[in-house]
Design goal:
By secondary structure, this protein is α/β, with parallel strands linked by helices. The protein has one domain: 2-Layer Sandwich (Nucleotidyltransferase, domain 5). It is 15% helix and 33% strand. It has two helices and five strands, in the order αβββαββ. A hairpin with a 4-residue loop joins strand 2 and strand 3. The radius of gyration is 21 Å and the shape is elongated.
Length: 124
């Protein structure tokens, strides 16, 4: 963090942010029914699967948060979330964003705003 403070932050205040995402939605399982032995009752169930992804980030010290609901979880969605986080970082501050090493977090196509530095957690 000292390197970030001396380099990218250039004397600005440091805000520590934490980020993650979650899939919210419907994922079906096998439907079972109680029935008399030797019979096969119908057991219809919903075959659809629908999901949304909730991207969230917080700065607990300052009580700030930024979140997006996206229909997919990929580099494009992460870029949109980084832009949203950057809007919530104070003008006189630089954010250190702590996150896991998901593929879309570490992609070469990720466009990290100038007021954010990504700090990945170590694997496992």
């Amino acid at each position: 963090m000292a390197e970030i403070a001396a380099g990218a932050a250039r004397g600005k205040r440091i805000e520590i942010w934490f980020q993650d995402e979650a899939r919210i939605g419907q994922k079906n399982k096998i439907t079972r029914r109680w029935a008399k032995r030797g019979t096969r009752p119908s057991a219809p169930h919903d075959q659809r699967t629908r999901s949304a992804y909730l991207f969230g980030a917080i700065c607990p010290k300052l009580g700030k948060a930024a979140a997006l609901v996206m229909p997919w979880c990929d580099t494009y969605a992460m870029n949109q979330h980084l832009t949203e986080i950057a809007r919530h970082v104070a003008h006189d501050a630089h954010a250190i964003l702590i996150l896991d090493q998901a593929g879309w977090h570490m992609s070469n196509k990720l466009a990290v705003p100038e007021n954010i530095t990504i700090l990945p957690l170590p694997p496992k």
